[in-house]
Amino acid sequence: MRPNKLPFILRNIQFILIAILSIKIAGYFSIVEDRTINQVYKTIVRLGMSGSILLIYFKLIRYGCSTRVVYKGIFSVVFYLFYLVLGFASIGWSSNPQYSALQLLMTGESFLFMFFYIRVFQLVNFHFDWLKLNPVKLIGLAVLPIIISFIIGNFLLPDIFWRTMRGGEESRLGGYLMNPNELGMLAGIGAVMFLMPLVQGRKVYWNVLKMVLCAYVLLLTSSRSSVIGFAIVSVLLVLNSSHQKIKLYLIGVIIIAIPVLIKLIVFKDEGGLDEVMSMTGRLPFWKALLNEGIVKEPFLGYGFMRINYTDYFQGLNTYPGKMTHNTFMQVLMNLGFVGLVVALFQLILTIRNYFVHLAKEHKLFFVALFIPIIVNSITEFGIFGESNYGILFYQFLIFYLVVSIPEKRSTKEKILQKIFKKRWNC
C-alpha cells in the first residue's frame, strides 16, 4: 500500500469529510439579521455541501469502488420516507403552503445529503481500511471549529455573539446566530465526542482540552436540556470505561460538577424549582396546544411545520409561540395524529435497529449522539421539528444503522476488487 499514489481526494478524505460536515452544520446558522440574506446563505452552503458529497461519491465509483448496498432494518428509512411524503401531501392543506414546502425541501435535502455522506464513509472504510475513518472523530472535529469561533466571538464581538433575554435580565451565548439551546446541544455533542476517546485512554491531554472548550461553550449557553443530555451521556461513558484510573478521575470531576449543574439547572432563574417544574412555561403551552389547538385539526394537522392557522399559536393563558418546543408535539400539530403515529413508529424502528443490527463496539457512539438530540427534542426543535442540525445528526444515525456494504462478493466483484487494489497499490 502506497498512500502517496492515491488521488488527492483519497489522500485527504478524512479532512474533506470533516470540512464538509462542519460547513454543512454552519449552514444552519444565521450570519446577519436580515432574513433574506440568511436564506440565500443557507441555501448556497447546504446545497454546496450536498453537491460536494455527491461529487466525492461519484469520484469513488470512478476509482473502482463497489456500489452494492445492503439494507438492514430498512423499515426505519421507509417510515421516514412516509413522514416526508405525508409532509409533501400536507402542502395541499397547509395554513402556509410556501413555508411548509420550504421546510420540507430543507429536511429532504439533508436526508439525501446524509445518505451519500454515509455511503462515502463506508466505501472509504471498506476499500481503504487503513484510513480507519471514525464517526466519533468526524463529528467531534466537525463541531470543534464552530465551538472555537463562538469562543473567539464571545470575547471579541459580544454584541453579536450574545443574546439578551427576559427583558435584559439574562444573557446567553448564541446571539442572532443561533438559538442558545441549539448551540448548547451542538456543544454538548462535541463534548461527548471528545469524552469517548478520553474514557478509553486515547490521547488524553488533547481530548481533555477539546472537551473543555466544548463544555465551556455549553455552560455559556445556559441550556438546561443540553447540560442534562451531556450529564447523562458522561455518566454512561464513565460507567462503561475499562480504565479504572481514568474512571476514578472522571467520577471525581462529576462529583465536583454536581453543585454547578444544580445551580445551572434548578436555580438559574428567579423562579427556581417552580420554573423548572413548569419547564420554563412550556407545560402550560403544551396543555393549551392539546386543549385549544389540535382539536381543530386532529387527524392531519395544520400542514408541515405549521402549528396554527396563523404564524403563532397563543392559548388563553399562555405566551405566543411559533413552534411547540417539543418535537413530538410539533409533528402532532403539523401532521396530526396520523403524522405522530408515523414519526413514533419511525423512532421505535430506529431504536430497534440499534439493538438488533448495530455491532457492540459501535453502540456507545449511537448512545452518545442519540441522547443529546433526543433530550433536545423534548424542549426544542428536535428530530421532527423545523430544519436544524439535530435532524441532520438523527438522519446520520438512521443511515448509519441501515446502510452497509456486503462482505460477501460475487466472482465479478472479486475480480474488480483485485484490479482496484492493484491499480492503487494497496
Residue share in helices?
Answer: 55-70%
Low-confidence spans: none
Element-by-element helix/strand order? HHHEHHHHEEHHHHHHHHHEH
Number of helices: 17
End-to-end distance, in Å?
4 Å
Return the average pLDDT rounded to an integer: 88
The biggest beta sheet, please? 2 strands, antiparallel
Please state the structural category: mainly alpha
Strand order of the largest sheet: 1-4
Strand content: under 5%
Number of strands: 4
- Gyration radius, rounded: 22 Å
The rough form would be described as globular
How would you characterize this protein structure?
Helix 2 packs across helix 6. The model has no long low-confidence stretch (mean pLDDT 88). A hairpin with a 4-residue loop joins strand 2 and strand 3. This protein has 426 residues and is an all-alpha fold. 40% of the residues are buried. A two-stranded antiparallel sheet has the order 1-4. 68% of the residues lie in helices and 3% in strands.
Features:
two-stranded antiparallel sheet, 68% helix, 426 residues, mainly alpha
Write the layout of secondary structure elements.
Blueprint (H helix, E strand, L loop, with lengths): L7 H4 L1 H14 L8 H29 L6 E2 L3 H16 L6 H31 L7 H22 L1 H4 E4 L4 E4 L6 H20 L4 H18 L2 H16 L4 H22 L6 H6 L4 H12 L33 H31 L5 H17 L9 H14 E2 L6 H13 L3
Antiparallel strand pairs: 1-4, 2-3
Helix pairs in contact: 2-3, 2-6, 3-5, 4-5, 4-14, 5-16, 6-8, 6-9, 8-9, 8-10, 8-15, 10-11, 10-15, 14-15, 14-16, 15-16
Task: Provide a brief overview of the structure.
The chain is mainly alpha-helical. 68% of the residues lie in helices and 3% in strands.
